[in-house]
Amino acid sequence: MGSSELGLAGSSPRASTDVLHPDRWRPGPPPRLLGSRCDAAGCGEVTFPPRPLCPDCWGPATTVELPATGTLYTFTTVHVPSGHAQPPYTLGYADLGTVRVLGQVVGGEPRIGAPVTVTAISAGPDGPAGGPGIVYAFEVARQ
Amino acid sequence: MSTAYLRSAAVAPFGVFAGRSLEDLAQPPIVSAVRGAGLAPRDIDAVVGGSYASGALTAQRAIRGLGLSGRPVLNVENACASSASAAAAAVAMVRHGEAGNVLVLGVEQLSRTGSGLVPLNDDDPDVRLGLIMPAAYAMRARRYAYEFGTTPAQFAAVSVKNRKNGALNANARFRQPVTTDAVLASRMIADPLTLLQCCAGGDGAGAVVVSAEPGPGPAVRFAASAQSAGLDTSDPRDLARSALTATVARRAYEQAGLGPSDLDVVELHDAFTVSELMYTEALGLCGTGEAACLLERNATAVDGPVAVNPSGGLLARGHPVGATGVAQLAEIFVQLRGQAGPRQGRPRRVGLTHTTGGGISGYDHAACAIHILVRDQKG
After folding, report:
1. Between chains, do B129 and A112 touch, taking CB under 8 Å as contact?
2. In the predicted structure, residue B272 carries a pLDDT above the cut 50
3. Residues A74 and A135 grouped into a single domain
4. Averages of pLDDT over each 10 residues, chain A, 143 residues
5. In terms of CB atoms within 10 Å, which end of chain B has fewer, N or C?
6. Do A19 and B142 touch (CB under 8 A)?
7. Complex ipTM above 0.90?
8. Are residues A134 and A77 in the same domain?
9. How close A42 gets to chain B, by Cα (Å)?
C-alpha cells in the first residue's frame, strides 16, 4: 500500500513485509529501527514497522528512529531449523521505548531485563530476504 | 432469535495418514454426524468448512459424492480457530433463521507439508526472522515462569495429565501416558519447551451438525458463541497472559448468563504446555499465575470439579489445525450427554470450547473462538 494510494502527500513511510526493506530499519552505522509517530495533536501513537496512517486515528504519521537501546522482555533459543535460520539461534522481544519488537538475540548470555543494543548481523543463505544479507538483531553486552 | 443446538458430532481418529485423500479423511465423520443427527443429506441447509492449509474449496471437495452440494457452502480459514470459527458462523445462521440444519466440518492434512511444524506464511516478517510456533510459545513460557515462578515440572504436568487423558481416547493420536521425567528429558525444541510439551500437527477430520432443533437424545444447546481477532498493535503485548482469550471469554459468559464457576468441563487450546496454564487463567477458572496449582490439586483432572481437556487436548489428540475446533465440540458433546466412557469422570452439564490461533506478525493472537454448551434439564 503506497502513500499515493492513500492520498497522502510527501514521503510517508510505506507498509512493507520485507524485514530487510530500508523503510523498516537503517543498517547504519549505527543501526536503528524505524517507526512512525502520528502527527495529530493529542495522539502521538508510535508504531513498528512504520505505517503510512496512524492505526488509531488515521492521521498522517512521520517516520522516527526508535531508541538504539532497550531491554530484553523474553527470549528463547531454538534448536530446530525454521527454514529461515539455522539452529541454535535465539529470538527475543526487546522493548525499545514504547514498542516491543521481535528480533534475533546475539552477544552475551541473554536474561530477562538485560540491556540490549540494536545491531546488524549477517543472515545466512536462508536469511530473511531469502538469501545472504544483513538483518537487525539485539545484542546483549558480554559480561 | 432462535436457539441453536449441537445436534450431533463425530470425529475420526487423528494421526498421520499419508496417501489418503481429503474425501477419505473427511467423509466418515460427515456421514456419522448427519446420521447421528437423525437427518438425511437433503435436510442439511448449508455447509461450513474450516481448514487452514488444505487448499482451495476444501468443503466442496470434502462433500463430493455425498449429495450435499447445490446449497450454501462456505470455507473458513482462521488458523487454529478455523473450524471453531466455522461453527460460530453456523450458530449465527441458525440463530438468525437462515438455516435449520448446518453441517460444520473441520479437516486438515498436514502430513502433506512434510514437516513437524505447522506451516506459516513465508512472507511474514517474524517468520523470516526465524519465528516458529514453538518459539512463540517458548517466549511466553519463559516470561510466564519469570513472573509466576513456574517450575519445569509444573509445565510438564500439563503434558502428563493430557497424555493420561489421551490414553482413554480411541481417537487420540498419542495414547501412551508419559512421566514428568520423560517430558523434561525429551528433545529441546525451543528452550524451555521440550518435544513432549509441543502438540503435533498431522491429519484429521471431524464434523458436527448445528440445528434449530435438538434432535434425538439429550439436548445440547449453544448458550454462547463468540469469536474475535486479537489487536494488531505495536504496544507492548503481555506474553504471560492472553488478552484476547480473556476478552472473548467475557463476551461468551455475558451471552450465556454464566460464569467460569458454572463450568463442568472445558476443552481449551493446549498447543503447548504453557498454553493450558495461560488459557485456564484467561478463561477465569483461577487467578493469574494459579493454574499450575489448580492442576496439582487435580481440580482439572477427568474426575475433578472442572475437567480440562479430558479428550487429551491438542497435546495428546494431535492438532490437525483446521480439525481441532470440531474435535473440541465433539468431546464436549459426549461429556454433556454422559457418553464419554472412561473419560466421563462425573456427570457434566455445562461445557466450554476454546480455540485460538496466531502466527502472524503484529498480532498477539490472530483469532479466538469460544462456545459455551449447556445440557438443559429435561423439562
Report:
1. no
2. yes
3. yes
4. 41 47 80 92 88 88 95 97 88 96 96 97 66 83 85
5. C
6. no
7. yes
8. yes
9. 17
Q: Kindly determine whether residue B129 and residue A104, on different chains, have CB atoms separated by under 8 Å.
A: yes
Residue-wise pLDDT for A51-78, tens only, equals 888 888 888 999 999 999 999 999 999 9
Same structural domain, A48 and A111:
no
Using the beta-carbon criterion (under 8 Å), do B125 and A17 form an inter-chain contact?
A: yes
pTM above 0.80, yes or no: yes
CB A60 within 8 A of CB A43: no
- Count A/B contacts: CB-CB distance under 8 Å: 107
Tell me the residues of A at the B interface, defined by beta carbons under 8 Å apart: 17-19, 24, 35, 45-49, 55, 73-80, 82-85, 89, 91-93, 95, 98-100, 102-104, 112, 127-129, 135
- Asked if B190 and A135 come within 8 Å (Cβ–Cβ), the reply is no
Among A41, A66, A91, which residue terminates a domain? A66
Average pLDDT over residues B12-27: 95
Residues A44 and A89 in one domain: no
Distance from CA of B288 to the nearest CA of A (A): 18
Compute how many other C-beta atoms are within 10 angstroms of the C-beta atom of residue B257: 10
Mark whether A89 and A56 lie in a shared domain. Answer: no
pLDDT digits over B300-321, tens only? 999 999 999 999 999 999 999 9
Same domain, A53 and A97: no
The whole-chain average pLDDT of chain B stands at 95
Structural domain count, chain A: 2
**pLDDT for B322 beyond 90:** yes
Nearest-5° Cα angle at B113, B320 to B188? 75
Spell out the SS3 assignment of chain A: CCCCCCCCCCCCCCCCCCCCCCCCEECCCCCEEEEEEECCCCCCCEECCCCCECCCCCCEEEEEECCCEEEEEEEEEECCCCCCCCCCEEEEEEEECCEEEEEEEEECCCCCCCEEEEEEEEECCCCCCCCCEEEEEEEECCC
Structural domain ending residue among the three candidates A44, A66, A88: A66
Enumerate chain B positions whose Cβ falls within 8 A of a Cβ in A: 117, 122-132, 134-135, 138-143, 146, 187-193, 232-237, 239, 361
Domain extent at residue A80: 69-140
* Same domain? A60 vs A20: yes
Q: ∠ CA B41-B44-B46 to the nearest 5 degrees?
A: 130
Question: Cα distance from B227 to chain A (closest Cα, Å)?
Answer: 22
Out of 3.20.20.140, 1.20.120.420, 3.40.47.10, 3.10.50.40, the CATH code matching B5-113+199-375 is: 3.40.47.10
